[in-house]
Amino acid sequence: MESIYVDTDQLTPLIFILSTGADPTEQLYKFARDRDMMENLGTISLGQGQTKKALDLIEVSCKEGHWVLLQNCHLSQEFMPHLEKAVLKLPDNTEMNPNFRLYLTSTPIEFFPVSVLQNGVKLTTEPPRGIKANLKRSYAEISDAWLNDCKKEAIYRKMVFGVSFFHAIV
Amino acid sequence: MTRDSYASVAIRGSILYFVISDMANINSMYQNSLQFVKVLFNKAIDATPKNEDLDIRLKDLIATITKAIYSNISRGLFEADKLIFTYLIATSVNRNTGVITPSGWNTLLRGAMPLTAQQKDTKPLNPMPNTMNDLNYAILYSTVCQIEAFDGIIPDMKENIDNWTNWATSSNPQDEKLPGDWEETLTDFQKCILLKVFRPEKLMFAFKNYVRVHMGQYYVDS
């Protein structure tokens, strides 16, 4: 994240290109926590009726120097023209705070505004390849407390392994 | 003029930009503006350590620019498309210098070209009917007609059929030496064409080798 962050600025959005089974949100949250920006990171999952909320969030965040994460652009075709306009207007914003950053996530879609793509930094996210990497990822999300929470410990752990393994090979 | 001596750097920049803009044909998300690439280009120039010697300076500039632009664009590509991107850069550079000829490039992409009446009349019989089907032999014969370096390869296959069969049926022909002098007389790219004739399923591995040899290990580790 760090090496990509230096290539973005307040006018250059970062676009996560999603593929099935990969979600960069946690990655971004971790980065935000490392930089003490978690408090100032506004997240909106795009969908019906979110257009105004998203535009207001961008406007306020420009002024305050906050970060904005707009998730799942592929689910909100009607928002895309608004997004394009908002991004094109960024350079004219006289109250722009240089700490502002815009993060977008989307699967590959035809209707994603070309102007945003062309001048943004793009990053693909793909699920780990191979059984080992997949298992590691599943286990990274499991805490010790959660594993110890069951009375039939041995059986439970075997079951967790079985399900994780199944998940890794399908 | 001084600025003319930097033309090679500008050429590399233009090659990179056109490969990047072609990538949009693969996935509509792979869009990058000229302006965006120019910013990367200029940043890389600033980041290149200065050197009084012009030849070294040019080399450093080209290396830094290629690496910076590659890294930036490549992380926005899906794994499956990264090798296509680097292979296109490597071949575009070599097409620009003439190492790869237009007819060679066309053969690799599109296969056999139409033959003239005379070429049809003088077409020898398939020298290795057990390892090469007629469709693939058509590609080979078309290549022989168009690229001088392949002169004499068909009679040679007939004469040394055992060596050629061993090569063509080995488990990794892209890593094996070609029979006889062909290993030396054919370029790496022309070997890719031979592989297309005999073992097209190994081409992706050959492309990877090609990128490694012509651009460096850095460009195949993603």
What does the model show?
The complex is a heterodimer of chains A (170) and B (222). Chain A folds into two domains: 124 residues, Rossmann fold, CATH 3.40.50; 39 residues, no CATH class. In chain A, 45% of the residues lie in helices and 15% in strands. Chain A contains eight helices and five strands, in the order H-E-H-E-H-E-H-E-H-E-H-H-H. Chain A has a five-stranded parallel sheet with strand order 2-3-4-1-5. Chain B is elongated, with a radius of gyration of 20 Å. Chain B folds into two domains: 107 residues, Helicase, Ruva Protein, domain 3 (Orthogonal Bundle); 98 residues, no CATH class. The mean pLDDT of chain B is 93. Chain B has 222 residues and is mainly alpha-helical. In chain B, 29% of the residues are buried. Chain B contains twelve helices and no strands. At the A-B interface, helix 5 and strand 5 of A face loops of B.
